[in-house]
Amino acid sequence: MNFPTHLVLSTAVAVPLKYVFNFDNSSIFVFIVWSSFLIDIDHIFYYALKHRTLSFKKWLEVGKTMRNKMQPGLFIFHSIEFNLLLLLFSALYPWLLIFFLGSMVHILLDTIGHYRYHRDFQWIKKWSIFISIYS
Description:
By secondary structure, the chain is mainly alpha-helical. The protein has helices at residues 3-20, 25-36, 41-50, 56-68, 80-92, 96-118, 129-134.
């Protein structure tokens, strides 16, 4: 999904979460910012490492190409392993629940977009750290 879609839907999800989890306004702001676009900073890490460049222009070119073809990559913050750690650590540090819930909203929207394009879930393997290392 694109940024405006993430922003609108994250905001729509944030309002009920405010009341369900009794989040304060700053927590809701963090949720919206994380689930809308900060989670996608892992794309920059991927582009920099995979294409061995620190050129912002090159990152935009690669990102646009990958986006047009809905090509997945090893995006750390999208991985099941990272999100399981967030969930586990949120038991010790409740403020991490905000990031976990934001990640789930973002990943659900990305999953819908990828599924609509590919009509399967094979691409999800590329989001897994474990599968990427051992394949």
